[in-house]
Amino acid sequence: MGREIYDIFVIGGGINGCGIARDAVGRGYSVALAEMNDFASGTSSGATKLIHGGLRYLEHYEFRLVRESLMEREILWAMAPHIIWPLRFVLPYHKGGIRPAWLIRLGLFLYDHLGGRKLLPATSVLDMRKDPAGKPLKALFTRAFEYSDGWVDDARMVVLNARDAAEKGATILPRTKVVSARRENGLWHIETTDTVTGHNDSHQARMLVNAAGPWVDHVIRSAFGENEAHNVRLVQGSHIVVKKKFDDPRAYFFQNPDNRIIFAIPYEGEFTLIGTTDRDYTADPKDVRISEEETVYLCNAASEYFKEPVKPEDIVWTYSAVRPLYDDGASKAQEATRDYVLKLEGEGAAPLLNVFGGKLTTYRRLSEHALEKIGAAIGIKGAPWTAKSHLPGGNFAVKGYEAEVAKLKSRYPFLADPHARRLVRRYGTRAETLLGDARGIEDLGRLFGGDLYEAEVRYLVEHEWARHADDVLWRRTKDGLRLSKEQAQSLEEYMAAIPAMAG
């Protein structure tokens, strides 16, 4: 009695769930969101970390998806210029290659003109015998195309959407599993369990949104009791990270003899990210790990292009995730649609919206389309607003990163340049909130390794729901690449001794 009845209850703390929650609360809906683990602990932190149109999707005639994705690149960049930035891609080719030059040229012409490109530079042609991009590649590749897309810190984009939703009034419940949901008297009655404390709770909502990603069918089966749910095709994508293979700031787009493609991307300053794979996956998504077959595949594919081969012993980190693609009956995993599908059920009395598929680049538009369906089901509140918004810390000029770094170093002259750059990349204008009144490096507290200080850890606990070392080292940051196992364990012990505080 007296408990709040939410307009919308969202299941899933990946990019789609957090994006929908943020959009909805910004329009005036009352919103709660439950995530059974940490934010972005599944698919949303296992991407190739690109804001891109999807050049290869043109081959599968997904023109609507590509156009929407292309139009979103600059919108998202302006929303979050601290965690999103432009990246040029070099696509080498040679006579007798997988795709003829005219086909690549046609695809890139469409890429340049299908979407709303204003700030990103257009495609150009490179002579790889003269251009620095040719230096790490085999002499066979004498020509290349160069085109624009964008980079994103995927896990940070998720948690910043959750942070903004919370600041606008949403109830955010990390580490909270939905164990049942039933319709009763025109409302959803939702039972949850806190996976840390074991505490059970109940909630009521006018509408339920199932944005559980790879677990979307599992939620339909377990929480709703519908045993015949088979809507998604799980496709595993794995990546390897090796010590830096090239000094050029551009990324590479490599075409493989099996018609698949991989990227080789500058990563965290000192590394190269290589991925991804595409293969069907049938086990529990929480158990996904890179296979030996995928490791060998990525090493061999990259070695077809680089003068210096990529070997398994070069690998410093791997990550793997499962994409919940809508099952359109495609024969090959890499041909399954990357487009999203929104299915509304039970209009009029406790409606349910199931979210299938999607990708990082289109999450904002997916959220807008979800709000159209939500408005039709329970009444419209507010107008679309996110296109001109900023994610927390992103309220500076779209090309203003260097100016933000200079401003931070001016206020905190004790910061080393790489440290200041990383702080602006992670937190944007909120880096000053993190640093507070610090006048020297000693004011940041204990050093855990790299340039990860106690002040940053406490900020992540207090503002971004971090609870364990992995939350900090692999999702809120990528400092796990720089800390030893002993340092990571020390951080875990430290975090266990301080209370969870974010709200």
Count of beta strands? 20
Helix content: 25-40%
Oligomer: single chain
The radius of gyration is: 23 Å
Helix count equals 13
Residue stretches low in confidence (pLDDT < 50, at least 5 long) are none
What is the first-to-last residue Cα distance?
24 Å
* Largest sheet report: 10 strands, mixed
Beta fraction of the residues? 25-35%
What's the pLDDT, averaged over the residues? 93
Secondary-structure-derived class: alpha+beta
The 3D shape can be described as globular
What descriptive keywords fit this protein?
single chain; 503 residues; alpha+beta; ten-stranded mixed sheet; eight-stranded mixed sheet; 20 strands
Structure described in brief:
The chain has 503 residues and is of the alpha+beta class. The protein is 30% helix and 25% strand.
Layout of secondary structure:
Layout: E1 5-11, H1 15-26, E2 31-34, E3 50-51, H2 63-79, E4 84-93, H3 101-114, E5 124-127, E6 143-152, H4 154-167, E7 171-173, E8 176-184, E9 187-194, E10 200-210, H5 216-222, E11 232-243, E12 251-255, E13 261-267, E14 271-275, E15 279-280, H6 292-303, E16 315-326, E17 340-345, E18 352-357, H7 363-378, H8 401-411, H9 417-427, H10 431-435, E19 447-449, E20 452-453, H11 454-464, H12 469-476, H13 485-496
Parallel strand pairs: 1-2, 1-10, 2-7, 4-12, 10-18
Antiparallel strand pairs: 3-6, 4-6, 5-6, 8-9, 9-10, 11-14, 11-15, 11-16, 12-13, 13-14, 17-18, 19-20
